[in-house]
Amino acid sequence: MLDKLNAVEAKYHELLSLLGDPAIQADASQYRTHAKALAELEPLVDRYREYKAVVSNLVQAEELARGDDQDMRGLALEEIPGLKARSEALLGEIKVLLLPKDPNDEKNVVLEIRAGTGGDEAALFAADLFRMYARYAERQGWRVETLSSNETGVGGIKEVIAEISGKNVYSRLKYESGVHRVQRVPATEASGRIHTSTATVAVLPEAEEVDIQIDAKDLRIDTFCSSGPGGQSVNTTYSAVRLTHIPTGMVVSQQDEKSQIKNKAKAMKVLRARLYEMEMRKQQEAIAKDRKSQVGTGERSEKIRTYNFPQNRITDHRINFTTHRLPDVLDGNLTELIDEVVTFFTAERLKEATAVTS
Questions:
Q1: Would you call 277 exposed, middle or buried from its count of C-beta atoms within 10 A (0-12, 13-18, 19+)?
Q2: 300 and 202 in contact (C-beta within 8 Å)?
Q3: Cα–Cα distance measured from residue 76 to residue 297, given in angstroms and rounded to the nearest whole number
C-alpha cells in the first residue's frame, strides 16, 4: 500500500508541475483536465502526508520513551497512545480513499417516486417523500426540476419523476432506492387504527448520450393530447409524447410541457437514465452472483426503511439504524441518516477489498 501511496504522491507533484506550465495554462481544456485530476488526488495526498508526519512523531516518541531522561520519557509516554490512535484513524481514512471510485458519484440523478400499496395514504406518503428529498436538495444547494408528476385529488402523488442536479448528487442519494414503508393513522381513519403503506423510490444516475446511445430504429415515438386529473383536457394539441424502446419494451410518457419538443427531450432523459441503470444492474448482478450476502444490492423489492409516526421513529433495516427524529428528517434534514448509510456501505466495500487482497 505504501508503494501505491508514494506513486499517488508522485503523480500529484507531476500534476502540480504541469499546472504551472505556461503551455498547459494556455490550453483551457488541458488545464481543466489536470486541475480536476489534482483535486481528486488532493484528499488522499493530504491524509498520506499527515499519516507520515504522525508516524514520524510516533517513532521519535517511542525512542524518547526508551531514553534516560525521565521528564522526556514521561512526556513521550503520554503522547504515544494519542499518536497511535491518530495513525490508525488516518490509515483507515486512507484505505477508504484508495477504494475504486464509483464513476457515477458525480452525476446528477433522475429521482422516481411511486405510490405503492395503501391507496390514498400511499400517495400522500409518496408526496411526503418527494418533499423530503426536495428540501434536502435545497439544503445542499442542488437544483430540483420536476420532469413529470401524476397527482391525486387529496394532495398525494401517484408518481413523480424529477431531475436533481448539483455537486456529487448520486454519491449522496444512491442508497435511497428501494421500498419505503410508512406506519401511521390516516386523517380519514375515525377509529385511530394504524395503517401501513408503501412507496417506491428509484435513484438513477443521469446518463448522457455518450453513456447510452439509442438507435433511432429502436425507438417508437407516439404523440397524443395531454390530459389532467379525471380525464380533464389540458392541451388540445398533440404535445404529449410516449417513447417505446423496442428492444427492452421500456415505455416513458411525458406530458407536463405544452411543447412536444420539450416533452420528448424530458422523456429521452428519463429513458436514458433507466436504460443506463438497467445496464449497471446487470453488471452488479454479475459481480454479486457469487457473494454469500446480498445485503444492500439496491434491489427495489427490498424494504429499506420504515417511517413509524406513532413512535416518532425511522428505522433503516439494511444497517439496523434507528433515529427518533422523524419530523426533522421528513423536513429534509437527512444528513445524519444518509451519513450512516454511506458509512455502512463504504465499510462493506472495504471488507470486500481487504478479502480480495488478503
A1: buried
A2: yes
A3: 48
C-alpha cell at 244: 417505446
Report the 10 Å Cβ neighbour count for 165.
14
Measured between alpha carbons, how far is residue 182 from residues 5, 23, 122, 138, 310 in Å?
46, 59, 8, 24, 10
Residue 209, number of CB atoms within 10 A of its CB:
9
> Which positions ≥6 away from 256 have C-beta within 8 Å?
146, 147, 148, 149, 226, 263, 266
Straight-line distance from the first to the last Cα atom of the chain, in angstroms, rounded to the nearest whole number: 12
pTM, full prediction: 0.70
- Asked if 80 and 62 count as a contact pair (C-beta separation under 8 A), the reply is yes
pLDDT in tens, 243-269: 888 888 888 888 877 788 888 888 888
Q: Which residue bears the cell 446511445?
A: 213
Radius of gyration of the chain (CA): 26
CA-based torsion, 31, 32, 36, 37: positive or negative: negative
Least confident of 63-67, 128-132, 140-144, 236-240: 236-240
